[in-house]
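Q: Start with the shorter request: fold the first protein.
A: Done. Sequence, then structure:
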Amino acid sequence: MILVLNLKMNLNKNSVIEYENFIKDKNVIVLPQYPYLVFFSRGSYHLGSQDVSKYSKGSFTGEVCAKGLKGLGVKYVLVGHYERKKYFNETNEDSNLKMQNVIDNGMIPIYCVNQTPEDKNDDKELKNIEEQLEAIPNNVKYMIVAYEPTWLIGANNDELDIAHVDRVITKIREYLMERNINASIIYGGGISPDNINELKKLNGNDGFIISSSALEQEKLETIYSELKK
């Protein structure tokens, strides 16, 4: 199963070096902060970035282009995370441009499809999920789609609505099949050692993206071991 470790804006230089040593023999996708990408180059893991610019190059101070990430050995790029939308007002159009840059530079998008509590309760036809999926470029050869219920991002919550998650994953897979998009689907939100066995039973789910549990080595070891059984 796919396991993506989103480290967000955590760890310092020393703890990053320790963390890299801890995961070096693990088959995971790790997403460190930009400054620490250079510390991840020698393990069994695959290197990913937490974000990328929607611009391919130019005078955009503070942005990081896809070509620059590719040059550092990045293979996967996270796009459309809820926190980017919430705090930086990113749109589906932004996600489309970012994914296109990722694809054009030979990397693989990990595209986050988010759902708010309001959408869960009111959007019974999952139209908002479909609208986000519409942002996927037509020329993608392979990608990862991550379903993330926003109310569980970064939390350790074992009270999950498994039936609802199953329904959303089924909707995503049906949509991808209709567009003939080759993709893996993963789930993120409230994942912990206490519920990973139950979550492994999700229909059509190919893996997980974790954040809080990724930062604690004991929890990560437990989750990783369960997924490898």
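Q: Next, the second protein, separately.
A: Sequence, then structure:
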Amino acid sequence: MKHSPCLNHAHMHAHHHEVSEKTVLYLFVAFIIKMILSLVEIIGGLIAGSVSLIGDALHNTSDALSILIAVIAFKIGRKKADSTFTYGFKRAEIIGGFVNLILLFISGCYLAVESISRLWHPEPVAGTIIIWISILAVIIDAATAKLSHGHASDNTNMRMVFLHNLSDALGSVGVIVSGLFAVWMHIYWVDALIAMGIAAYMIYQAVASFPHVVRILMNAAPVGLDLAAIQTKLRQIKGVRDVHHMHVWHVNEHDISLECHIIADDMRIGHIAAQKLREQFGINHCNIQIEKCADQCDCCLSH
């Protein structure tokens, strides 16, 4: 097939609110604090003989690493595009989110195995140590979850940080409950049961979030975006004769890119189409190639 000459390209960009440098600094401080907390929990868990406290420490360690990965991803994502990475580095945040999911899933599986073993063979635990360390953990986890909550709805990494820390806080509450059972009733199998619940939550969150991240990495069309409706809207623009070779994908969490060919005589249609895509579909980066064809050319006859 003979290709029509490219006569015009229309580009349209829009910018979204990003995680601030101040928030990134706070996250790094939270990473240090959570690593210290994890060390305290591991030591306390070994002394107390508590698998739920050690499990909470593993969860905290995984989440601390997720915060560090998020911080690194945010820093890399702010780098400007170059001749090699022409789209820039914003997808680093998605890659960071993907690594976080893997860490969460592996930690959850390990904790599940350990808790099942301890559930069949309960051992005495020092409830008082468990309770006080877990109270400290709840305070730290809740504060870190609050820090990341503001961006959790529109950023995969921040959503992972928020969910991890929220689950940490809830898990620590569960560990407190297991400590109370140990102190008041000398019932020790609750410790393993709480650990199993923490493990199940970790695995569930990893599996539930996995498809969204993979779709972005695989350049899939954004969920909920009707490609047929987009083509219909473009074809309704006065002067547009056809729309083809359309591709839509996520560059990162927010930025949606679209490229297509439009057969039209008026070069201004590219800019009109780009504006409609931005306003009606939230597509903020468009590469629209305008093709000017004769009525009987191969391009027109093929559509």
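Q: Describe the second briefly.
A: Residues 21-217 form a domain with the Alpha-lytic protease prodomain-like fold (CATH 1.20.1510.10). Residues 156-185 form the longest helix (30 residues).
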